[in-house]
């Protein structure tokens, strides 16, 4: 809900004027790339067919001269758009900063203590009750100064102090009125007109709405206050003589050598100097399978050694680590996130001079002060403002009741406008833990059950995620693990164990080849499993291949249904964005019928893709759960952290957090946003319609000042009651 036409995408280029061999092209992005103008000019001049280029950042135009035999006007325009596109991140960030500087200054309700807000509501209620009890049916005329300094008037003005400070502050700092400027005008007008009840009613209703909003936002903030501790508190530092001592993470410096063993987190970014281990980097890269790391391989803070041990030379420590940089990106995004200016504030601000003009016009025509004062008493500010505040607050409470924490009402409005959905894979589309999906015996006399039991015997004492998948499959199937000897772990290869007198090996293809096992019989089965996106584990006995197991990160239940519902909410483009390998991403995207996918994306790559989409006019909703998703969640128009396994960093970066694992809550919260905006539009109709009728009747002398205030406040009550319907909205979609 915004005034005017929707602006063209930031990177869009259009021809302003064209002559043979000469064209002037306009792009909004050029206004934000003044420091890149020389470089853009140089790149254009180097392009084939272009003889001259001159960029004017002030107007957002570029004048291009070209060879008509080699280029057309349209080709030159496409070339300019392509070159400007390479600076999309800088242009988009600059535009966000400029928009933030132009936004009116509003009070942050979460910064005001709830206790103070509750006291103000109580005091206003008492003051209203006392005035009603003291008033008789007819109020005698009271001199202006005595009326201004009466106890009810002074009470109203003192209770409205925060509103006055905010309203005047916005005029002082931005030279633009905000919602509190309107409320202050209505309150002051009511006091000057001797309508103390009207003034206190405006304050009372506004305070109730703000108390509800502040309480809900405070509850949300408390749920995500702590950031994730990404490493161990103490680590083993290796001294030059080879001895190891335990030190705190804060004592580590660049160049230190640390030892990390099975089950421990790596606390620095660095290079492995010695040892070999299977390292779980899912929280950083999104790849659910552990990565084999040996000498000269790079490892990251926050990843976990699942098997083996390594010695890591620290290259980055503390805030310089990968996770530290992610947190910094989140903080930067929070500062530059373009704020949504509520339609209610814009509309109300636009009508401030209209009310004063109407008052002056009515007085000039009728010479009746009471009719003129009604033009100020019956204003749009209270009803229009509460038409959004109460609806958004009710939706936030409804979300909380269903385990959905919404950090602010503006995100509900943004969801109503969203047209693109980006989803992470590991832990979002999938469960984030491997499962055995295929069991293929390849030896005569070996059943699927026996193959699994032998594999479980070898993996029973292992902490590797693959081992956990095998043991879980055996447990759920009700199979028994046979007696076996002590397992011999071959780091990053597999495991060997004696079972019933035979040597059983379970592991990778490389492990089998190094053990002399012939894998020819598995070629067809392996090709089929790999094509379906499964990881392969080979099982051999006494040097013969017994069979293969296919392991995959299973898709969440109801995820396909959730994506179908998202299509129905108006999501035109659904994209998979993951740090996992290309093969796995392709399989998942195909099974979920997604529009496209991007694989092997680092956290900064995900954030960059979000910004590129936004710079082209796309409104993006990002859904993720891990540390690696945090920058993308922060930069998206709406970031949604979902799943019971979500990280604290993802929760802090996201605008909305879904506590449960039910994927159907994702389309549910988007439908909540759309219904909220539908009710806001209804509220606008009620508020504008009723108050307009009141203004017309008051100007005609049909509606006295007292009944004008009654009509105005009755309209406000109707708006609040209509918004209250959202408290019974079913986010799960079981009810309409």
Task: Describe this entry's structure for a reader.
The protein is α+β, with helices and mostly antiparallel strands and 736 residues long. The protein has 5 domains: 13-95, Gyrase A, domain 2; 109-223 and 339-394 and 674-728, no CATH class; 234-319, Calcium-transporting ATPase, cytoplasmic transduction domain A; 404-419 and 557-659, Rossmann fold, CATH 3.40.50; 433-554, Calcium-transporting ATPase, cytoplasmic domain N (3-Layer(aba) Sandwich). Strands 5, 6, 7, 8, 9, 10 and 11 form a 7-stranded antiparallel sheet that branches. A 7-stranded mixed sheet has the order 12-24-23-22-13-20-21, with helices on both faces. Helix 8 runs antiparallel to helix 9 (196-223), helix 9 (196-223) packs parallel to helix 15 (381-401) and helix 27 (665-699) runs antiparallel to helix 28 (705-724). The longest helix has 35 residues, at 665-699. The protein is elongated and about 110 Å long. It starts with 12 loop residues before the first strand and ends in a 12-residue tail after the last helix. Mean pLDDT is 78; it is low at 1-5, 102-106, 136-140, 219-231 and 326-342.
Structural topology:
Blueprint: E1 13-19, E2 22-27, H1 37-46, E3 50-56, E4 61-66, H2 73-85, H3 88-102, H4 114-134, H5 144-148, H6 151-159, H7 161-174, H8 179-192, H9 196-223, E5 234-238, E6 244-248, E7 257-260, E8 269-280, H10 282-285, E9 291-293, E10 298-299, E11 304-316, H11 322-336, H12 343-350, H13 352-366, H14 369-377, H15 381-401, E12 404-406, H16 410-417, E13 420-423, H17 425-429, E14 430-441, H18 448-459, H19 465-477, E15 488-490, E16 494-499, E17 502-507, H20 509-514, H21 523-531, E18 535-541, E19 544-555, H22 559-568, E20 573-577, H23 582-591, E21 596-598, H24 603-615, E22 620-624, H25 630-635, E23 638-642, H26 648-653, E24 656-658, H27 665-699, H28 705-724
Parallel strand pairs: 13-20, 13-22, 20-21, 22-23, 23-24
Antiparallel strand pairs: 1-2, 2-4, 3-4, 5-6, 5-7, 7-11, 8-9, 8-10, 8-11, 12-24, 14-19, 15-16, 16-17, 17-18, 18-19
């Amino acid at each position: 809900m915004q005034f005017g036409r929707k602006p063209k995408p930031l990177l869009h280029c259009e021809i302003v004027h064209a002559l043979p061999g000469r064209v002037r092209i306009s792009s909004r992005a050029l206004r934000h790339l003044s420091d890149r103008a020389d470089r853009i000019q140089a790149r254009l001049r180097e392009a084939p067919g272009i003889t001259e280029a001159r960029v004017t950042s002030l107007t957002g135009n570029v004048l291009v001269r070209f060879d008509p035999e080699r280029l057309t006007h349209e080709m030159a325009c496409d070339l300019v758009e392509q070159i400007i596109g390479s600076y999309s991140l800088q242009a988009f960030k600059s535009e966000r900063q400029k928009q933030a500087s132009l936004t009116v200054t509003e009070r942050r309700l979460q910064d005001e203590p709830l206790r103070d807000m509750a006291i103000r509501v109580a005091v206003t209620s008492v003051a209203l009750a006392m005035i009603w009890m003291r008033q008789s049916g007819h109020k005698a005329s009271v001199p202006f100064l005595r009326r201004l300094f009466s106890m009810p008037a002074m009470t109203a003005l003192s209770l409205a102090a925060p509103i006055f400070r905010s309203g005047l502050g916005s005029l002082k700092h931005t030279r633009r009125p905000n919602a509190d400027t309107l409320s202050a005008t209505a309150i002051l007008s009511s006091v000057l007109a001797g309508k103390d009840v009207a003034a206190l009613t405006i304050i009372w209703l506004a305070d109730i709405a703000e108390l509800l909003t502040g309480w809900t936002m405070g509850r949300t903030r408390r749920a995500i206050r702590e950031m994730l501790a990404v490493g161990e508190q103490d680590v083993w530092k290796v001294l030059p003589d080879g001895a190891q001592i335990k030190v705190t993470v804060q004592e580590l410096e660049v160049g230190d050598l640390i030892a990390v063993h099975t089950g421990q987190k790596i606390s620095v970014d660095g290079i492995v100097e010695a040892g070999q281990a299977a390292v779980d980097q899912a929280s950083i890269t999104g790849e659910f399978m552990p990565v084999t790391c040996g000498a000269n391989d790079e490892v990251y803070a926050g990843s976990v050694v699942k098997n083996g041990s390594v010695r890591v030379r620290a290259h980055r420590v503390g805030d310089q680590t990968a996770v530290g940089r992610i947190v910094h990106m989140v903080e930067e995004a929070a500062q530059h996130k373009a704020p949504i200016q509520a339609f209610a504030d814009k509309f109300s601000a636009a009508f401030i001079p209209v009310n004063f003009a109407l008052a002056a016009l009515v007085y000039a025509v009728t010479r009746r002060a009471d009719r003129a004062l009604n033009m100020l008493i019956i204003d749009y500010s209270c009803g229009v403002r509460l038409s959004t505040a109460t609806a958004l607050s009710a939706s936030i409470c409804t979300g909380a009741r269903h385990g959905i924490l919404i950090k602010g009402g503006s995100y509900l409005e943004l969801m109503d406008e969203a047209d693109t959905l980006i989803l992470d894979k590991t832990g979002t589309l999938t469960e984030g833990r491997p499962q055995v999906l295929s069991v293929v015996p390849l030896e005569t006399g070996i059943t699927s059950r026996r193959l699994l039991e032998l594999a479980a015997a070898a993996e029973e004492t292992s902490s590797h995620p693959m081992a956990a998948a095998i043991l879980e499959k055996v447990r759920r199937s009700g199979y028994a693990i046979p007696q076996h000897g002590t397992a011999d772990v071959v780091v990053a290869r597999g495991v060997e164990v004696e079972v019933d007198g035979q040597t059983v090996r379970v592991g990778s293809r490389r492990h089998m080849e190094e053990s002399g096992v012939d894998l020819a019989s598995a070629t067809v089965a392996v090709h089929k499993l790999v094509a379906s996106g499964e990881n392969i584990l080979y099982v051999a006995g006494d040097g013969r291949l017994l069979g293969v197991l296919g392991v995959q990160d299973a898709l969440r239940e109801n995820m396909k249904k959730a994506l179908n519902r998202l299509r129905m909410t108006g999501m035109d483009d659904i994209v998979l964005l993951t740090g996992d390998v290309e093969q796995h991403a392709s399989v998942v995207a195909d099974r979920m019928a997604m529009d496209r996918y991007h694989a092997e994306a680092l956290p900064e790559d995900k954030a960059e893709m979000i910004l590129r989409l936004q710079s082209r006019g796309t409104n993006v909703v990002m859904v993720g759960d891990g540390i690696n998703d945090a920058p993308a969640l922060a930069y998206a128009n709406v970031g949604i952290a979902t799943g019971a396994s979500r990280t604290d960093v993802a929760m802090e970066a996201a605008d909305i957090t879904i506590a449960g694992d039910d994927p159907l809550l994702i389309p549910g919260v988007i439908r909540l946003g759309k219904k909220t905006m539908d009710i806001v539009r209804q509220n606008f109709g009620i508020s504008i319609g009723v108050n307009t009728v009141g203004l017309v009747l008051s100007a005609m002398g049909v509606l006295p000042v007292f009944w004008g205030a009654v009509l105005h406040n009755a309209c406000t009550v109707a708006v609040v009651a209509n918004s209250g319907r959202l408290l019974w909205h079913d986010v799960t979609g079981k009810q309409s």
